[in-house]
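Inputs:
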Amino acid sequence: MARVAYDDVSKRFPTQDRPAVDRLTLDVANGEFLVLLGPSGCGKTTALRMLAGLEYPDSGDILIDGRSVVRLEPKDRDVALVFQSYALYPHMSVRDNIQYPLRVRKLTAAERLTKVDRVADLLGIRQLLPRRPAQLSGGEQQRVALARAIVREPRVFLMDEPLSNLDAKLRTHTRTELKALQKQLGVTTIFVTHDQAEAMTMGDRIAVLDAGKLQQLGTPDNVYQRPANLFVAPFIGSPPMNIVDASRDGEALVLTGGWRVEAPRGIAGSDGIKVGLRPEAIDLERAPASGAQPAEVLVSEPLGSEVIVNVMLGDVLLKVRTGPDVRPDPGTPVFLRARPDGVRVFDASSGAALN
Amino acid sequence: MKNFFDNVPRYLEEAAWLDGRSKLRALAEIVLPVARNGIGVVAGLSFLAAWAEVLMMIILIDSQDLKTVPLAFYETLRTQGGYTEVQYGLVAAMGVLYAVPVMIIFLATRRMMVRGLIASSRGL
């Protein structure tokens, strides 16, 4: 168990014109499950590999428990990495794969046996121990890779998109298991993913990265409810946040299509703003009411427990989340009302959140 | 040979480093065993090439004691080829003896050779 800190870390690859990681500063608490989230090429894997010692930062420092590790070889850092492709040694049995790090640490055969069996029981892979990696399914390989990381009781777990090679059903299942396992073991974990649903469900906190820069660091709720800028807002959440051009008119914000919503308190500036509304921050009414904006239904998408109603507001498409029994036909006139606490305002040029 | 090493995924080596191995031991314990089919193919083919090599041996070897097996064939056929009949029984027996080491090497490395040759045609 350990604390991890990135202190102003930058890294640029010679073939690229912008840094892969740009002045990243980040603290990970002892026992925390931190998710590095971002689109491909945002620098999240590079950040992880620098902590593992597989890449060297150009500047800045990386600390584990307050001690700089940038000059240490990977073998001396005591961190375990679960690779996206699992990186199981193909010429060894599953048992040999799992006990490899223990063999390296010169544990006796009896100690290795006990530890491997215990981890195998924990992950339910006892019956796989005599097999070779090539004889395992993707999900089984994933468990073996996890077992190899857990068995050595490292200070930090690093996971580089470990669920992305699993099919959708298994991925959801493993997500739950992995989160429970991490809480049980209490080991500081840094988990890289491009999947916002994974980040939301698993992380104690999420660090959103784009173009090498940290965009926002916060709890899943915080990042979801109060996105820091126009990159984070549509990236988190499914369906994404509706972003609409707007202007200020006294106490109201006037959205495209003439929709007037009450301005949240403390918003400075009047021009060049955009309003963000989560699909669940819009109420949909069938009858006209004062203050409700008329719009027209494009199509309804039932998802069983809820319906996503796509609404045209002028030429802007809005997604509205409603209950399962509300599914208006295309062309139906509806009336929209924004929930006052769900209105997010952004500066159009800088993208920064204003409330 | 380089292709066989290139085909060993880099993350296997990195995994071994993170498991606590030095770069040299990761090479010996992970990369070499994974590339062993390729090493087997190259070793087998190199042996065969050296074993069957004639031209260089004719040029370089002049001591009777050092002459290689193909040179013995050559000598036998040359001395017998002028006026006397070639002793095909002798030549055939020499052929069998000539093939024995090659067969032993092949049988010993057969699995690696087959896998390696397959791998070289489709990637590891």
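Chain B has two domains: 1-34, 37-122. Flag for discussion at group meeting.
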